[in-house]
Design goal:
Blueprint lengths: L5 E5 L4 H12 L3 E6 L2 H8 L8 E4 L5 H11 L5 E4 L14 H28 L4 E6 L3 H4 L5 H20 L5 E8 L5 H6 L11 H11 L11 E4 L4
Parallel strand pairs: 1-2, 1-4, 2-3, 4-5, 5-6, 6-7
Amino acid sequence: MARAKRALVTGGTGALGLSVAQALHGAGWETHVSAATAESAQRFQQTPQGRGLTVHAADLATPDGTRHLFRETGGPLAALVATIGGYSGGPLASTTDAAIDHLIDMNLKTAVLTLREAYPHLKQNPGGSAVVLVAARGAVSGGPGSAVYAATKAAIVNLAQSTAQEWLEDGITVNAILPSTMDTPANRSAMPDADFSLWPTTGQIADVVAFLVSDKARIVSGGAIPVYGRA
């Protein structure tokens, strides 16, 4: 019997990451997820949502933490979905140093370190492998009150496009998705007067991700794919 293909979802205990991990696990993948701390990994492992998933604790904003994760997951790796990210908004002129550092670390540095350390494991996979990064609608549209956030997400789009070209001959596809505001408990709480029916659900976005890492999407690479729902 053929061994299940291995997938890693970084940030897989969050709203979008969990939906992606569950979709891949349900499709028969050997699915690994990362959590930020040992305590959060242990708590998640004991929940019904964590059943069937292999959970690793790693700080992916640090080189050592990222290397530790890939020593644990090993290879070959058929799919990598990097969902770690953060948001901070407000007028650019009053953006704090801490907010700038946080957005760069969470939205860009984690993705760069993850791609760097994942490369040998992705390259090992017979028949090629797939990477999906999570940008945002603001990466291509901008918007007041979110300049630094949007800039870091625009960097993710370019990172995906550049890496897709660099890794083309290795058989590794790399795409970015561009969610609008997603229907999550946190976003509902932050925007209670919004029309939630217009927002894409994390499950709907996970379905798109599952397609992008499937064999059916082997010809799709370097894309910046909108997943806006009706927002």
